[in-house]
Amino acid sequence: MVGEAVWNDQGQIEAAQGAVQDIDKHKAVQKEIESSREEWQLLAESVPMIVWTTNSLGRMSYVNQFAAGYMGSNARQLIQEGWWQYVHPDDKPNAKAIWKAALMTVQPFLAEFRVLCHDGTWRWHLARAVRVDASQGAQWYGTAMDIQDFKEAQETGSQLANRLVETMESVADAIFVLNHHWIFTYMNRQCETVLERKREELLSRCVWDEFPQARGSKFQLEYERCVKEHATVRFDAEYAPLKKHFEVSAYPHQGGVIVYFRDVTTQKRLTEQLQQAQRIDALGKLTGGVAHDFNNLLTVILGNAEILAEQFGASTQEQALTQMISSAAQRGAEMTQRLLTFARRQSLEPQVLELNTLVKEMTPLLRRSLGQQIWVETIYCDGLWPTLVDPGQLEMALLNLAINARDAMPSGGRLLIETSNTVLDEDYAAQHMDLQAGPYVMLAVSDTGQGISKENLARVFEPFFTTKEQGKGTGLGLPTVYGFVKQSRGHVAIYSEINQGTTVKIYLPRCLENDRYTPASAMHEVHHDGQGRLVLLVEDDAQVRQISRRQLETLGYAVIEAENSRQALHQLVCQPDIALLFTDVVMPGGMSGSELAHQARTLRPDLPVLFASGYTGHAMVHHGGLGAGALLLPKPYLRSQLAEKLVQAFKSAATSDLDSSLS
Ligand SMILES: Nc1ncnc2c1ncn2[C@@H]1O[C@H](COP(=O)(O)OP(=O)(O)O)[C@@H](O)[C@H]1O
Ligand SMILES: [Mg+2]
């Protein structure tokens, strides 16, 4: 039935007019709708968020009390006015555009915007609405939820995360994170440098696949212990393929393990050097003390032997005995003299000296005493600086080195004595104990003998260290050279390659009339710009490689490294922009630096090549397979010398052909 009341003037119902229809069914449906709407509204009133309905034209039909309270209005007003006015003006255009798009596509409306709260603050909301088609037209049912707190937390979280990542990127330690499957999930920048690998290559890869030599090593054992015991572990270990020593801390976390580590190779080497120097120093003090007392005893023995000889008279048996006593005591005195030399306790008589003259005077004697099997050559530097040194001691040192060389060449060979002027720079001085940067006069003695193994090389300056059979070696030769040179404020360096030979270099301080010099760095200021040209650095010794890299980079070159010829050739194929090949001459692994240069030249005929070697230049030219025109930089070199040779290498490559200079 549809009808309406008819009212009289008094405001009372007078009659009713209308039409009657059979609407039982219709009514039942209507009732159901109403009750479900009631239910829906009840629900809408109970949730702590804005709930509204609107038609497709945007006319509001409902908002809940929560919305009214939130915006400080009432529901009726909100329905009449809509609540766009409570949306932040900056967010309105975007929200409206999304709303329009939702109307067009009939897809759910989803937008974030700020809503004005009754206390005058703007708070972020996430609004959603869906369209429901009903008989009286489409209706949109929407909610808007306050997400301000969530947003703030998210913001703080991401700021924190950003700051954390920034920090991790800038720290000096290398950091990586592994998950439970030993997969790299994070790695900082420093990590790339220390591991010599790119992040792209390592992230999402298994650590044991990428660093196979770490499998079963201390690294694996410790990381596993960290995870298993859920405890922090700290250790240091060497990773052989990189020839680096690491100090590692590993922390467990629920996703796996976080690893902090740093490369302590240089530190370790310096510590070892320091320990070695301290050991030698301690030995020096000990032997010095003993030798000093011993000399007193020997003086007594010798004096008494002399008195006895006088008392016994000639040709007695006793006379022969006293003779034996005094010659044994004399040998003892010589030995203690050497020990004192090692202990830097001998009295030196330094003179301003022309080293070339001293060597020239000594060569005939050396030739005679070394025998015919040994070919003695000398190369004198023109304009050699004078030096202040005890000539007698220097002669002894040279003799010692020559005898060592002879002993290392039992079936003959070549001995080369060279002199030159050298400036040792701050870089070099910093790496050695007790060494001042500055100009030095160098005396180098090279042989083509059996060489010295790495383990022995660390010990050759220790007194009584000898590899020679009893009676042949005393182990006092190099220690006395060392002691004397140190006492003369100089420096000794020794280079050796097994089965190739050995070079010992003695550096003695330059002595000018007024005995003053400016520091090396000021004298040899390097103005050099490599312009970022790419240098392929081939060197098997990781420490030397590291120093050379630093020098090249300081000179403005970009560097890629290879630790052997095979790797170098691979790099040459992959990297067409390599501008120069800088290679060590003697390297393990079958292919020497000169062979590498040959092969490289077949790939890149115009490629400039520079060789480096621990032997002095001339020794290498004759024995390292390099032709006379090859550019060779003797180790140790200064940055300024490297710069100079690089310039020469680029220049000569532009004009000549290497094949003619390689033999
Ligand atoms: N030129 C060299 N070539 C090879 N090995 C050398 C050379 N010089 C020194 N050595 C090694 O260093 C050791 C110590 O040398 P040194 O102090 O002169 O004592 P000694 O000659 O009495 O053995 C030698 O035993 C030898 O093993
Ligand atoms: Mg010797």
Account of the protein in words:
With 663 residues, the protein is α+β, with helices and mostly antiparallel strands. The chain folds into 5 domains: 150 residues, PAS domain (Beta-Lactamase), CATH 3.30.450.20; 93 residues, Beta-Lactamase; 67 residues; 159 residues, Heat Shock Protein 90; 135 residues, Response regulator (Rossmann fold). It is built from 22 helices and 24 strands. Strands 4-3-7-6-5 form a 5-stranded antiparallel sheet, with helices on both faces. It has a 5-stranded antiparallel sheet with strand order 9-8-12-11-10, sandwiched between helices. Strand 10 and strand 11 form a beta hairpin. Helix 12 packs parallel to helix 13 and helix 19 runs parallel beside helix 20. The longest helix has 48 residues. The protein is elongated. The termini are far apart. The relative contact order is 0.05. The C terminus is likely disordered. The structure holds adenosine-5'-diphosphate and magnesium ion. Adenosine-5'-diphosphate binds next to helix 13 and helix 16. The site of magnesium ion has 4 residues, from helix 13.
Short characterization:
This protein is α+β, with helices and mostly antiparallel strands. The protein folds into five domains: 2-151, PAS domain (Beta-Lactamase); 171-263, Beta-Lactamase, CATH 3.30.450; 275-341; 351-509, Heat Shock Protein 90 (2-Layer Sandwich), CATH 3.30.565; 526-660, 3-Layer(aba) Sandwich (Rossmann fold), CATH 3.40.50.2300. Helix 10 packs antiparallel against helix 11.
